[in-house]
Amino acid sequence: MTDSHSEFSSDVDSHADAPTIDPDLIDDAVDYFIPGEPLVDTKAPSGPIADRWSTRKFEAKLVNPANRRKLSIIIVGTGLAGASAAATLGEAGYNVKSFCYQDSPRRAHSIAAQGGINAAKNYKEDGDSVHRLFYDTVKGGDYRSRESNVYRLAEVSTNIIDQCVAQGVPFAREYGGLLDNRSFGGVQVSRTFYARGQTGQQLLIGAYQALERQVAAGTVTTYARHEMLEVIVADDSSGQRRARGIIARDMVTGEVQTHLADVVVLASGGYGNVFYLSTNAMGCNVTAAWRAHRKGAYMANPCYTQIHPTCIPVSGSHQSKLTLMSESLRNDGRIWVPKRKEDCAKDPREIPEEDRDYYLERIYPSFGNLVPRDIASRAAKYQCDDGRGVGPEVDGVRRGVYLDFADAIARLGRDAVEAKYGNLFDMYARITGEDPYEVPMRIYPAVHYVMGGLWVDYDLQSTIPGLFVTGEANFSDHGANRLGASALMQGLADGYFVLPHTIRDYLADGPFEKIDESHPAVVEARTSVEERINHFLTVNGTRSVDSYHRELGNIMWEYCGMERTEDGLKKAIDLIRTLKDDFYRNVKVLGTADSLNQSLEKAGRVADFLELGELMCIDALNRRESCGGHFRAESQTEDGEALRHDDAFAYVAAWEWGGEGEKPILHKEDLVYTAIEMKQRSYK
Amino acid sequence: MKLTLKIWRQPNAASTGAMHTYELDGVSPDMSFLEMLDVLNEDLNAKGEEPIAFDSDCREGICGMCGLMINGQAHGPEVTTTCQLHMRSFEDGDEIVIEPWRADAFPVLKDLCVDRGAFDRIIQQGGYISVNTGSAPEAHSIQVPKDAADRAFDVATCIGCGACVAACPNGSASLFMGAKITHLGELPQGQAERDSRVVNMVGQHDHEGFGGCTNIGECTAACPKEIPLDVISQLNRDLRTALRHGH
C-alpha cells in the first residue's frame, strides 16, 4: 500500500553556503536535447505569498449559472484529483464526462494510501500553521517546487478536512468525539488526519460518492472501462489552438470513440510503472499524459521518483507488483545484513550478534535506522550490490535486508509490538509465508510515487491551452521529494478547491466554436489511434508485451533508480532505444481489436513507457546534482550525502516533445523563493 | 508445484462459455494466485492461444477489482481478496476450478471478468451525504462519539468487490448495501437523508435483479473485509423505520 509516513528528521538543516559547480560539468546531456526558451509566466499573481490565491480567485472570471450547463468538461481519471473535480464541477452545473480504465470510479489507486492526510488545522495547538506546512513541504521537496503553488496547497488544506468530514469520511476520533491527529516521522507538529491505515480508501470513497451523486443528478456521465488514447488539440477558425476532446477506447467492446468538450482535465495519476515493479496498481500508466506530451504539453522533471525503503522484496521472476509496508516500522525495527557473504543464505537467527552489520546505525550514528527514505534506500542497495543481501536469489542476486524486531519484542513485549504493528505483520506473513515475530522481516526499496509530471502553470493549465492537469499527473507541488501524507492533500486540493476556480476563468470565454468529428484534428487523432491498435495486432512477433515491460523496468531500475551516473544513464538510453525498436517489430499481441483485450491495452501503455523512460534518463542525465529523490553519484558530499547545486539547477526542467526520433527541447522555469530561504540538509 | 486448472472461458457477453482445462507446471508457493494466472497467460501467449481475461488492479487487497470463484468459494479458501491469496494455500497436484462471480446482476463480459456496474447504480440512489464542495461547516463543529465513528469506519472498509453477492445463494447485495447504510447511518452527518437513502437504495437493488436476504450468512463468511452480518439487520431496521415514516 502507499505509505504516508513523512521523511524522518526533516527539521535538521545546515546553514552552509550553497556549493558551486564547475560550469563545465553541467553539460552531461548536451548531445541529447535542444535548448529552448525559458518559461517565464507561470500566471501566479505577484504580491505577498499569503494573498496570491485570494487575488487569483478574485481575478478569475465568473460563469453565469445558466451558462454552465452549456459548457462541457472531460476529466480523465477518478482518483482523488479526478473524482473530486468531477463532483465539484458537476455540482456547479457544468456538463462533465468522467473516464476511468477500471470497472468503477471507486477503484482508482488513491485507494491504496495508508497513512493519512496533512492539514494545517492546528487542532493540537502545537504551533502549526499554513506557513509551517508550506515551509515543511518546500523544504521536504528539497527546494525544487514552485512556492506559490505550495503555499496555496497549505492554505486550502484545512478546507479539505471540513469537506471530507461533512461527506461522512470516518476519520479517527478521540473519546470526546473530536478528530484525532498524529505526527509523522520527524515532523514536530501533529497535523495528519487518518482513518486507521486506510485513509486513502476512505477519502476516495467520499469523493466517489459525491461523484455518483452527481451522476444521479444528471450533471456527470461516467465512462468506466474506457481508456483515453489520444487528446484532440484543434485550431479554431481564428487559429487559436485548444484541447477539445479525447479519443477513448471502450475496453469491453473495443469501440474507438470521439468525445468532444470545451476543456480537458487529466487526473490520470503517476507513471511509477515505467519501472515494471512498483507499488502502483497494475493498470497505472502514463498514456494519457504521454499522448498529451506528444501533442505539445511539456513534461516537467520526469526523473524525480520517490523510492520507498520498506517494501516486501521480490520473491521470484513471476513478481507482478510490490507491496509497501508503513515506514513507521523503522521506529522499532533494526536494519542489518550479515557481515560475511557466506552467511547470507543462513537462518538469520543463527547469525550471532557480532557477525551482523547494523549498517545504518554504523554509518549514521545520530539517526540510525531513522535516516530519510532516500538514504535508507540507497544504503540497502549498496549492501546488496556488495553481495550481502538476504532472502531468495532472483536472477543471481539476493535483494533484501533484514528489519529485525527481536530487540523491540524483548524490550516492549510481543503484545506491545503486536498492538503497534499487528496489521503490518499480518500482511507481511500473508505475502511471504514467514512469521515476522519469529524471523526477521526482509525489506527492499521500491518505486512508490513520482514527483515529476506534466508541467502546469499556477492555474494547473498545461502548455496546451484548455488542457488542465491535476494530482500526481502534474509536477507542481512536491519538488524533488514528496513528504508523507501530502499526496492525498494535493489530489483533493487540486480537485475540490483549486481547479474549479481556475478552470472557470478559462471556461468564461466559452463555449468555444463547435467542432465535429470531421474536423482534421479529430480525424488525425482518431486515425493515429486506430493505426496504433492495428499495428500491435498485426506485428505477430515472438515476445509478449509483459516481457518488454519487465526488461524496460530492469533497465530503469538499474540505471535510473536509486543512484544514477552519467555512464549508466547514457547506457540506459541506448538500451531503451534498442528495446523500443525491437518492441515495434517483434511484439506478440493476440486477440482482436473489437473485444476485451488486456494484452492490447498493455501494449499501448508499454509503448508509451518506452518513450517516457528515455526522457526520464535524459532528464536525470541533464541534472548533474542530487536533490530529493534524484541522486547523481557524481554529486555527493564526502559522507555520501546528496549535494544540491542551486547555482546551476534551481529550475524546473520542462521538456517539449521534439518529434518522432528527434531530440526533446528543454525549457527552464527558474525557481525563485521570496518567502523561504534555501538550505542544504544534513543527517549526520 | 504442478496444477490442473479448470477455467471458465467465454469470448464475450453474448456468447456461451465453457470450462477449459490447462496444465501448469513450475508454480511457486510464493506466487500470488493472480501471478499464477499471469504465468499461465504468458504460456498461452507463447503458444498462440489468447490469454485468459481476468480483472485486478492494486493487487494489495484494497481496490476491490479482483474476484474469482475458486473451487466454488468466492476469493478461494482464505478470508482475503483473490490477489492476496497465495499458492501456498494449495497442494502440488491440485485441481483448481476457477469461475467468474456467479450472479445474474453481474453479467460476464469475457472469461473471468464481470460487470459490477449495478453497485455504482445502487450508490447513485443515496449512498452519499449531500454536501456540495465549499458548503461544509468547520470539521470540529460536528462531534461524533468515538464508538459511532469506529463502527462507521469498520463497515466503511467495504471494497465493493462483490464477493458477498457471488457467495449468496440468492445473489443478494444486502451486505454491500447494509455496509453503506450503516456507515452513513452511524454518523450525525448522515441523519438528514437516512430514510430516503435506504428506500431508494433498496429499490435500485431490487430493480437490478439482486435477490432478497434470507439470513444464510454466506456473504459475511466470504467478505474479505469481514463486514459483519448485523449490517443487514441495520438495513432492515432502517427500511422499516423509513416506511413507517411514510416513505
UniProtKB/TrEMBL annotation, chain A:
GO cellular component: plasma membrane
Stretches for region Disordered: 1-20
Fumarate reductase/succinate dehydrogenase flavoprotein-like C-terminal domain boundaries: 549-683
Record-level Gene Ontology MF annotations: electron transfer activity; flavin adenine dinucleotide binding; steroid dehydrogenase activity, acting on the CH-CH group of donors; succinate dehydrogenase (quinone) activity
Ranges of biased composition (kind: Basic and acidic residues): 1-16
Span of domain FAD-dependent oxidoreductase 2 FAD-binding: 73-488
Pfam hit, one: FAD_binding_2
Record has Transport as a keyword: yes
GO BP terms in the entry: anaerobic respiration
Keywords recorded for this protein, A-Z: Cell membrane, Electron transport, FAD, Flavoprotein, Membrane, Oxidoreductase, Transport
Xref: Gene3D superfamilies: FAD/NAD(P)-binding domain, Fumarate reductase/succinate dehydrogenase flavoprotein-like, C-terminal domain, Succinate dehydrogenase/fumarate reductase flavoprotein, catalytic domain
Entry's localization field: Cell membrane
EC number per UniProt: 1.3.5.1
Main location: membrane
Catalytic reaction equation(s): a quinone + succinate = fumarate + a quinol
Cofactor(s) listed: FAD
Membrane topology: Peripheral membrane protein
Active-site residues, as the UniProt record annotates them: R373 (proton acceptor)
Family to which this protein belongs: Belongs to the FAD-dependent oxidoreductase 2 family. FRD/SDH subfamily.
Protein's name in the database: succinate dehydrogenase
Organism this protein belongs to: Nocardioides gansuensis
High-level lineage: Bacteria, Bacillati, Actinomycetota, Actinomycetes, Propionibacteriales
From TrEMBL, chain B:
Cofactor(s) the protein requires to work: [2Fe-2S] cluster; [4Fe-4S] cluster; [3Fe-4S] cluster
Alphabetized GO MF terms: 2 iron, 2 sulfur cluster binding; 3 iron, 4 sulfur cluster binding; 4 iron, 4 sulfur cluster binding; electron transfer activity; metal ion binding; succinate dehydrogenase (quinone) activity
One Pfam family in the UniProt entry: Fer4_10
Enzyme class: oxidoreductase
Keywords on record: 2Fe-2S, 3Fe-4S, 4Fe-4S, Iron, Iron-sulfur, Metal-binding, Oxidoreductase, Tricarboxylic acid cycle
Domain 4Fe-4S ferredoxin-type positions: 149-178
Xref: PROSITE patterns: 2FE2S_FER_1 (PS00197), 4FE4S_FER_1 (PS00198), 4FE4S_FER_2 (PS51379)
Gene Ontology biological process terms, A to Z: respiratory electron transport chain; tricarboxylic acid cycle
PANTHER family: SUCCINATE DEHYDROGENASE, SUCCINATE DEHYDROGENASE IRON-SULFUR PROTEIN
Protein name from the UniProt record: succinate dehydrogenase
